[in-house]
Amino acid sequence: MSHAATAHDDHHDHDHHMPTGFKRWFMSTNHKDIGTLYLIFSLTMLFIGGAMALVIRAELFQPGLQFVDPHFFNQMTTMHALIMVFGAVMPGFVGFANWMIPLMVGAPDMALPRMNNWSFWILPFAFSILLLSFFVPGGAPAAGWTLYAPLTIQGGMSVDMGIVAIHMMGISSIMGAINVIVTVLNMRAPGMTLMKMPMFVWTWLITAFLLIAVMPVFAGAVTMLLTDRHFGTAFFNPAGGGDPVLYQHIFWFFGHPEVYIMILPAFGIISHIIPTFARKPLFGYSSMVFATAAIAFLSFIVWAHHMFTVGMPLQGELFFMYATMLISVPTGVKVFNWVTTMWRGSMTFETPMLYAIGVVFLFTLGGLSGLMLAITPADFQYHDTYFVVAHFHYVLFSGAVMAMMGGAFYWLPKWTGHMYNETLGKIHFWLTAIFFNITFFPQHFLGLAGMPRRYADYPLQFTEFNQWSSIGAFGLGISQLLFVYIIVATVRGGKKATKEVWDNPEGLEWTVPSPAPFHTFDEPPVVK
Amino acid sequence: MTNLPLKFNKIVKFLTVFGGLLFSAAAFAEYRLNFQDPVTQTARDIFSLHMLIFWICVAIFVLVFGVMFYSIFKHRKSKNYEPAQFSHSTKVEVVWTIIPFIILVAMAIPATQVLIKMEDTTKSDLTIKITGYQWKWGYEYLDSGIDFYSTLATPREQIDQFDTERAVPQGENYLLEVDKHLVVPSGRKVRALITANDVIHAWWIPAFGTKKDAIPGYINELWFNVDEGKEGIYRGQCAELCGKDHAFMPIVVEVVTGEQFEQWVAAGGSFENVENLATETEPPVETNETALIEKLVPAANAAETEPETEATSSVTYTMEDLMATGEKVSATCVACHGAEGKGIPGVFPAIAGSAMAKGPVEDHINIVMYGKPGTAMQAFAAQLSDEEIAAIVTYQRNAYGNDTGDVVLPSDIQAKRK
Questions:
Q1: Is the CB of residue B241 less than 8 Å from the CB of residue B132?
Q2: What's the average model confidence in pLDDT over A429-455?
Q3: Do residues B49 and A377 touch, judged by C-beta distance below 8 A?
């Protein structure tokens, strides 16, 4: 890592010994190194999960089974989701949190550095167990990432491996969340009141509380599944008087806040990029904070909108419909604030800004299809179709993942000390945005016309749009190689980045040299 | 970024080409962009609700991003636009919190009205119990006692395209055709009780605007009332992941007039004169399955009434007969255990060379008839006739290189029925 090589230039570093090799990376307690590890891990998982997506899209290019049997297809859809959600998106944001939160609040490191090391190093083991499940008899879990009972009760031993892996990632996430909360609440620089905190810190603080609230719920759900499978209990097993719908309630009580866990830090990143390139302060800072908190609160009372077709009583359906619709109010406030931040700014369109605009535009599209999905009677038609698949890829890929890409370009000069290649960055943005839309926009039509999701094969009238989608997916996948190339090239060299990198950006991270030295803020900065 | 307008031109050009491709595709394809044509009042209500919300969303989208793109083209540094420094305005923020709220209330009112209507399952004319199985549907007319199973009729050769040389072209209703249709009358309120036998499934006919999960241990309700004059065949698919053959358990509903329906019920729900019933008939598919249906319908009906079952046992069966029938009927086994009986190790055990198929014949009959709890191996005793089970067991004990020489007779099966 080049920032390590040049870190000697900084005076902060003279007092400290910087370990190298195994000791540096495996025993690290340094927030920047651990952040780097998280980000590399996340990118690796993005490619593994992406490869599975391409198997899915290859099989769906034509009607009929050409490449994989339906059982393996189900393993692909299940593992693609588990890897992307728990391996790519969540650790990716923890990587950003590790790198940026101490720099943004003026702290020398995370509050609990050893726990930080542990929470990262659990992950490679958790995902090794999950991925090894491909090689046990019967292959990987194939019941969908939601692991609905009783289908999971039928599954092979890979389901147990998946449960162990979920427990491990849950422990990792909870420790990461505790670390964020303690750091943010205890280690802010003098003068940085809560309402002066950067938006990314705010969104992560709220996300951390969500994580602590719901990860144990998920752990409970999969543990009950485990005892149903092996120890003769019947929580969810109807053969013993259990209740399959109970599983769904517990799962989605975790699962809905989980989708906000994956999007709130993205909102934070966007709220940094737009003001920088609009050369204008973020509009409505305090309403942004309140909107984030409101979204987090509402995320706990909308879970059953994922299960409108299970046969809830009318009153239940009405309550969850109204509550879900309400979420669009604070989310709308955020979008309006971003647009108003741009309004009468003096904008330039470097790669991070392109990503930020792309996210605002495409995420909102996904948000509006989400509003359509909230309308219960219409949801009966959309439910479990490709309309839903299109919807959540608009919020998760063009929301969360593209926000991370934008964030990576935004802070890469701070991390590496080099400017990335602007032309290549822009090409990467346009390839990603265009192929993403070719992949997922036609899926709206597929869903409306009636194609159910998680189908290994489909009737002939769905062929055209599936072909569009498959072509787009391969383009999207191949374009990400350019992303890796840009990152590697920037780490290795390039134009030297200044301390501020951009045109007078706001935030403490821009007051330290680029690359950020191994130790920063030994003396706390004072925030006025 | 001084050359953005130039790039923008390129993007416009690309979009034009892209759009052109879509339109040219429209000329030959039968795909659609929106919901299937509704044939019930519920489906029409949902459709108008869906379009209402859609246009509201489009309006919001155009408004918000109209402002954003105006700003992007006007307020840019390359045009030497001086940045303003305002950072909040309570008035504006209150306005854009309240206005969306009012829009939401406007959306919620019609949505609530439709939902209340949809959930009212009272005053139905006819009740059908629908049961999801891995991977077929079972239908039971509670008023007349007619019951049958409905299985995918698309031949395996059309589905398996792994070997391109052996691939067979797919038919018009590929994956949307079943052996026995659910027959319902138009103009009557049909109530369905929905449950499942093993895992969760979901019963969905898009044109009816109904989708409900079929959950083991639960009985869910839905209803539909197809408009008179809309008789015909409507197709749907299972909409909840239910394991390996989730994509291969379609739903086909044949809507007939009330009068035709009465006749059909009076005839005991026979499928032999199906073409006389439907206004829109399917061309008969030249497959083994079709032949099978014709043969099986009398057998299945026979199995329902005790005296006739005894009558069938007086027929003599040769091993050749049983093997031939067994090969055809075991399509239901092949779904998991594979065409060559090799299964998928770890989830679906092999039949070829297995201890079950080569060991005691009793165990083999038992597992076919009563299944294995906690696995996808379900109890087939109620789904198949004595003759079919006997044929399957005989076939499996002698095919796939098992060569045990055992012959199982329908009377053996009948003796085991509890």
A1: no
A2: 96
A3: yes
Burial class (CB in 10 A: 0-12, 13-18, 19+), B355: exposed
Q: Which residues of A touch B100 (CB under 8 A)?
A: 328-329, 332
According to DSSP, the β-strands at B190-196 and B220-224 are: antiparallel
* For residues A160-184, average pLDDT: 97
Backbone angles phi, psi at B140, to 5 degrees: -135, 120
Between A406 and A20, residue with greater pLDDT: A406
The b/e string for B50-75 (b: 16+ C-beta within 10 A; e otherwise) is bebbbebbeebeeebbeebeebbeeb
B173 contact residues in A (CB cutoff 8 A): 459
Write out pLDDT tens, residues A204-243: 999 999 999 999 999 999 999 999 999 999 999 998 899 9
CA distance B354 to B402: 8
Going by DSSP bridges, is the β-strand pair B251-256/B182-185 parallel, antiparallel, or unpaired? parallel
Please choose, from the candidates B225, B220, B233, the residue with its C-alpha nearest in 3D space to the C-alpha of residue B129.
Answer: B220
Q: At what angle do helices A244-278 and A351-374 cross, to 10 degrees?
A: 150
- As a whole number of angstroms, the distance between CA A486 and CA A406 comes to 13
Cβ atoms A75, A142 nearer than 8 A = yes
Residue A449 · residue A382 · CB < 8 Å? no
Percent of chain B with pLDDT over 90: 45
Q: For residues B354-362, give the mean pLDDT.
A: 85
Q: Which residue of B has its CA nearest to A242?
A: B217
pLDDT digits (tens, 9 = 90+) for B268-307: 887 665 444 444 444 444 443 333 333 334 444 444 444 4
Does the pLDDT value for residue B47 go beyond 90? yes
Q: Which residues 141-170 of A have a C-beta within 8 angstroms of B?
A: 142-144, 148, 150-151, 153-157
Residue type, B198: D
Q: Of the candidates A77, A75, A54, which has an alpha carbon nearest to the alpha carbon of residue A140? A: A75
B150 phi and psi angles, rounded to 5 deg: -125, 115
Of A48, A60, A78, nearest to A473 (Cα)?
Answer: A60
Instruction: Give the contacts of A11 (CB within 8 A, at least 6 positions apart).
Output: none
A347 touches chain B (CB under 8 A): yes
Q: How far apart are CA A277 and CA B399, in angstroms?
A: 72
**CB contact set of A87 (below 8 Å; sequence gap of 6+):** A41, A42, A45, A48, A49, A123, A127
Which chain B residues are closer than 8 Å to A227 by Cβ?
Answer: none
Strand partners, A347: B76
Q: Output the pLDDT for position B11.
A: 55
User: What are the start-end ranges of the E strands in A369-484?
Assistant: none
Residues B153, B294: contact at Cβ < 8 Å? no
DSSP β-bridge partners for residue B183: B254
Other C-beta atoms closer than 10 Å to the C-beta of B31 total 17
Give the integer Cα–Cα distance in Å for B158 and A458: 12
Contact check, Cβ <8 Å, B347/A71:
yes
From the list A283, A430, A459, the residue facing B174 with the nearest CB is: A459
Task: Give the integer Cα–Cα distance in Å for A303 and A300.
Answer: 7
C-alpha–C-alpha distance, residues A369 and A388, integer Å = 9
Q: Which amino acid is at B402?
A: N
Helix, strand or coil, per DSSP, at residue B222:
strand
Contact B346 A136 (CB under 8 A): yes
Tokens describing residue A326: 């309400």
In this predicted model, what pLDDT tens digit does every residue of B364-379 receive, in sequence order? 888 888 888 777 788 8
pLDDT (0 to 100) of residue B162:
84
- The owner of tokens 């059953």 is A304
At B374, the amino acid letter reads G
Contact A148/B200, CB-based, under 8 Å?
yes
- Rounded to the nearest angstrom, the gap between the alpha carbon of residue A418 and the centroid of all alpha carbons in its chain is 26
Q: Which two tokens stand for residue A296?
A: 């987090």
